[in-house]
UniProtKB/TrEMBL annotation, chain A:
Xref: PANTHER family: CYTOSINE DEAMINASE FAMILY MEMBER (PTHR11079), INACTIVE TRNA-SPECIFIC ADENOSINE DEAMINASE-LIKE PROTEIN 3-RELATED (PTHR11079:SF156)
Protein name stated in the entry: CMP/dCMP-type deaminase domain-containing protein
CMP/dCMP-type deaminase domain ranges (all copies): 168-340
Superkingdom of origin: Eukaryota
GO molecular function: tRNA-specific adenosine-34 deaminase activity
Record family assignment: Belongs to the cytidine and deoxycytidylate deaminase family. ADAT3 subfamily.
Keyword tRNA processing: yes
One annotated Gene Ontology cellular component of this protein: cytoplasm
Keyword match tRNA processing: yes
Any single biological process term in GO: tRNA processing
SUPFAM superfamilies in UniProt: Cytidine deaminase-like (SSF53927)
UniProtKB/TrEMBL annotation, chain B:
Gene Ontology biological-process entries: tRNA wobble adenosine to inosine editing
Residue stretches making up the CMP/dCMP-type deaminase domain: 21-146
Annotated organism of origin: Anguilla anguilla (European freshwater eel)
Reported function: Probably participates in deamination of adenosine-34 to inosine in many tRNAs.
Catalysed reaction, written as an equation: adenosine(34) in tRNA + H2O + H(+) = inosine(34) in tRNA + NH4(+)
Stated family: Belongs to the cytidine and deoxycytidylate deaminase family. ADAT2 subfamily.
Domain of life of the source: Eukaryota
Name of the featured protein: tRNA-specific adenosine deaminase 2
EC top class, as a word: hydrolase
Length: 359, 187
């Protein structure tokens, strides 16, 4: 999928009154971690390349190759317009009083002509290369760093990844999930609904709602939908026939269809997607729309089912796709997927508030 | 064998600390099931749910026949307990509170979530599950702060773990013809 950078027209926002944001990994969403370093002004600009070369041979700064060795001084009226990282604080013996710090305490004078450097001072530098634009901007306030921008993530974080057309379709599917939630609530269930969609054919393959009030307390809406998809593929462990809203349909695919056209070709999480296959295999490549963030059982069930993407309306207190865990980005697991939240947020929030039955 | 126990007799949940003879006995049965599964070309995981010295649920992995990837042995066994409660007209909430799961392999994150949602007090397992384990290996669902996800439960881990690993190794030498082509893992 290509990044959708185009600005939405004002008129289109009338139909879709919500924004959709990615649920990124901790590494992508946390604040920039900082390290302390000693920097020094470069007295003569012409000596910069010599100084950088000599400093790099003594302090090569392993593990922080993303930081720029030299920065242009913030204060343009400064006497010394360039400053250079001498070393990380952890690279040298502890220095008790930084006020009396001299360059000779940091550098052996026989290997560097230290006369080219001014009085050293403490700075903070980003410990890791930034993964997102907000992290880059935050890190750059301390010391310049290189940044290999994933444009798709940047656009997604602005809530602009999807076109108005795509959002209209999302709204349609989430509306179906909200309707299912209401149907379940009418039967005394918790007001949670879900649908599973094949994004290739745009067909709804399963519609389900919470069925915990029935025979099985584990029949959360997501578990119901996963089993309904299995039914549509000729399997399934349960019958939900007594709940008219819980339905499945048999997947179809036309032979000319390439299963990789609509699926994300660029991976927002920087992780591998399961390979697409022609024969429907559990939930591979499918999208789940669910009114609220799944619990840990349901989130892991989606990993086992190889779901393609998950869209939810609102977060849950014990949610496992962003709140308590981020199962979709969990490093040790063998399948990862993209998660977006905020679809039809208002309607989903309303369901949550009057959801009476909680265990 | 690792276990976290506190000897507070007032804690009702602690009354489900089985004796080592009981653990021996039920885990032997779980291992028998795992071996039987391997002989039938199935995932060699043995799993039983014991209530009041009676086996209410036995599970084997039913993923392939149901085309539902959530049909792990534990989920199947939990369904058996629910069926028993239904037939015997018993309150399943009360039964689960006094039911122990014996399983040869650490339950996955999903199963750990399910066990917790149902307030199972104790899980005894054989080897760790480094790929999916939800009781300490990948995540620690029974111990984490999840106020809306049932009650925390205790685990007794490492029972005949080498033997459980050996059974799994034998199985994974064969290939699962239903799975899509796996990609080589990074790192």
């Amino acid at each position: 999928m290509e990044p959708q950078c185009k600005r939405r027209k004002a008129s289109e926002s009338e139909t879709v009154a919500w924004d959709v944001f990615p649920v990124l990994s901790d590494e992508q969403s946390q604040d920039a971690e900082l390290l302390e370093a000693y920097a020094a002004p470069i007295i003569n600009k012409k000596e910069t390349s010599r100084l950088v070369k000599e400093l790099a041979s003594i302090y090569p700064l392993p593990g922080v190759q993303h930081i720029k060795r030299v920065r242009a001084c913030k204060d343009s009226g400064s006497l010394n317009p360039l400053e250079v990282i001498v070393c990380l604080v952890r690279d040298v013996q502890p220095i008790p009083n930084n006020k009396d710090l001299s360059i000779s305490a940091l550098l052996p004078s026989d290997r560097v002509d230290i006369s080219g450097l001014g009085k050293p001072f403490l700075v903070k530098v980003p410990a890791y290369p930034p993964l997102t634009r907000p992290q880059f901007e935050q890190a750059s306030r301390h010391w310049p760093t290189s940044f290999h921008e994933d444009k798709r993530v940047t656009v997604a974080l602005k809530g602009q990844l999807f076109t108005a057309d795509q959002k209209a379709k999302m709204q349609k599917f989430m509306t179906a999930a909200v309707m299912a939630a209401k149907a379940g609530r009418a039967l005394g269930m918790d007001a949670v609904g879900a649908v599973i969609v094949d994004p290739q054919t745009e067909r709804v393959l399963a519609t389900g709602h919470d069925c915990r009030g029935g025979a099985n307390p584990l029949h959360h809406a997501v578990m119901v939908c996963i089993d309904l998809v299995a039914r549509g593929q000729g399997g399934g462990a349960y019958k939900f026939d007594r709940y008219p809203t819980c339905q499945f349909s048999v997947p179809t695919s036309s032979p000319h269809q390439s299963r990789t056209v609509i699926s994300p070709s660029v991976d927002l999480l920087g992780l591998d997607q399961a390979e697409q296959s022609w024969v429907p295999y559990i939930c591979t490549g499918y999208d789940l729309y669910v009114t609220r963030e799944p619990c840990v059982m349901c989130a892991m069930a989606l990993v086992h089912s190889r779901i393609g993407r998950v869209f939810y309306g609102v977060a849950s207190e014990d949610g496992a796709l962003g709140t308590k865990y981020k199962i979709h980005t969990q490093k040790d697991l063998n399948h990862h997927f993209e998660v977006f939240k905020g679809v039809l947020e208002q309607e989903c929030e309303e369901l949550k508030q009057d959801g009476a039955l909680i265990k | 064998m690792g276990t976290e126990t506190d000897d507070n007799p007032a804690d009702h949940r602690n009354t489900f600390q089985p004796s080592s003879e009981e653990i021996e006995h039920w885990m032997q049965k779980a291992f028998d099931m795992a071996k039987e599964a391997l002989e039938n070309g199935e995932v060699p995981v043995g799993c039983l749910m014991v209530y009041n010295n009676e086996v209410l649920g036995r599970g084997r992995n039913e993923v392939n026949e149901t085309k539902n990837a959530t049909r792990h042995a534990e989920m199947v066994a939990l369904d058996h307990v629910l069926q028993w409660c239904h037939q015997e007209n018993r309150n399943s909430k009360e039964v689960f509170k006094e039911t122990v799961l014996y399983v040869t392999v650490e339950p996955c994150i999903m199963c750990a979530g399910a066990l917790r949602l149902l307030n199972i007090p104790l899980v005894v397992y054989g080897c760790r599950n480094e790929r999916f384990g939800g009781c300490g290996s990948v995540l620690n669902v029974p111990a984490d702060e999840l106020p809306r996800t049932g009650a925390p439960f205790k685990c007794i881990s490492g029972f005949r773990s080498e033997e459980a690993v050996e059974l799994l190794k034998l199985f994974y030498k064969q290939e699962n013809p239903n799975a899509p082509k796996p990609k080589a893992r990074k790192d």
